[in-house]
Amino acid sequence: QLYTLINVYNPTSLFIASSEFDIQKRLNLLVERLDWEGIRVPEMIVYQMNSLDIEECRKKTEEMVSKANVVCLSGGPSSICAALAMNAVKQDKMMCHVVDSRSQEEQRANPLHVLNVVNISTEAVGQSRS
Fold first, then answer.
1. Which of 30, 42, 122, 124 could form a disulfide with 14 if both were Cys (CB 3.0 to 4.6 A apart)?
2. What CA–CA distance (Å, rounded) separates 86 from 37?
3. pLDDT in tens, 34-78
């Protein structure tokens, strides 16, 4: 998903919300691939959070969203995605979702694959809340 976001948006900075402790190892693989392809590697800022601590998720994602232009709601855990979505709507930020219809086996076999990105309008989200 990060590979796709970098290819689609070409960001200078990428804020990553993660509850995984081995995220840096996975990011190193991504950086190697981007370097190999000659793609500019964005600054990657990891926000480590406990997905079971809703207040922590809310606070950290609020800070992340304030610094971002686009908020991607792909991946998991759902508590982090929900906190990102709530803060994106609150701060009127564009949201997107990376669509990966491949099986888990295919995803593991070829994780660095360009996927489809679907933009989500905050206006549509706001209207559905009414």
1. 42
2. 35
3. 999 999 999 999 999 999 999 999 999 999 999 999 999 988 899
